[in-house]
Amino acid sequence: MRMWPPGGSPEAPVVAAAVLALAAAGEVLLRADGRVPLPLALSLALAATAPVAVLAAPRRPSAGSGAVGAAASTVAAAGLLALTPFHVLTAAALAVVLFALHRAGLHGPKVLAVLLPLPFVGYALTGAGFLAVLMAAGAAAAAGTGLARRARDTALAHDATERAIADTLLAHAARGERARIARELHDVVAHHISMIAVQAETARLTTPGLPAAGAERFLAIGDTARTALTEMRRLLGVLREDAGPAAAAPERRPQPGIEQLGELVDEARDASGGALRLIVEGPIRPLDAGVELTAYRIVQEALTNARRHAPGAAIDVELRYAPGVLRLRVRDNGPSPHSSADHDDGHGLLGMRERAAMAGGTLRAGPAHGGGFLIEATFPVPPREPREPREPREPREPRDSREQAA
């Protein structure tokens, strides 16, 4: 119930209060019949209309509800006195009473918003007439709509806050996971680039009869590899600074792979106390380091999610080596298909999907047929090209022997 658009001129509530007070006073003067003292009738009319300047003032979230409660109580008391003993309630006062009860429900103390309509309802129950019944119904409706709107606004604000917090947590988790992936990718790629630098330097120094141009090429390859390593370490330093001081100097250790899945499964079995199996099908063959690291991290996150959302459930971890593809499945047999449905509300699946995409694979997650939750990832595995056999070199004679032969 709004008497004018919000956000208007700051003087609008005062002007409206003055207009309503003049209208109420004019109506009192026109209806004056001498049965009620004119000063008393004018005082009740002003008391029932003038507080609208306080009631209609813009409310701030930090403002207290005391001023609204006091103004609404003054208006309701003046309106009730004008209605019951003296019968001098004006049309302007009637409108302001309903507006005051609505504002009390919206911005005033809730207890006061419930109590203020009760005298009007009690007066109507005494059989005072149609006006009293209309006033009671209007008072209850005005206070009720104010309370309902307050509850709706509070719920909307609470939902908006929860959404903002959830979005912030999701963005923070995504940034942390991407930084972690970037660091692990650095460790994997840095190994290969280091090997390029070492092999180029070794070839330059050990190849007999190498032309000067070839030596310069090998030297350039080594310099380029070392430059790439320097740039990657600089980028990694920025990522670790963003992650905080705790991540500035992490413990250095080799990145895990598929060979470490057995240890991971044993640790998860000891931590959860449930049945946990590692099933491997197909001929085992070495894979790219990035694919092995991604598979390990996906299994690690899947076991963590299963332990959190389906504690005590049996879990199967399956690795299937097929021609040109590696299939990874992690399934828990929770009590119902929906036992792990809240997996999607967390951030683990987001990181797993990003890891799978980084390695060129795909990941699917959802309720499994027959119950539980299933995470399935597929990675393409290109066949390794066989290396050409090197021609055997002729044994080189010792330098001293050649000199003796000469």
From TrEMBL:
- Domain of life of the native organism: Bacteria
One Pfam family per UniProt = HisKA_3
| Biased composition annotated in UniProt, kind: Basic and acidic residues | 384-406
Q: EC number(s) in its UniProt entry?
A: 2.7.13.3
Q: Which reaction does it catalyse?
A: ATP + protein L-histidine = ADP + protein N-phospho-L-histidine
Q: Which UniProt keywords apply?
A: ATP-binding, Kinase, Membrane, Nucleotide-binding, Phosphoprotein, Transferase, Transmembrane, Transmembrane helix, Two-component regulatory system
Q: Where is this region: Disordered?
A: 362-406
Protein's recorded name? histidine kinase
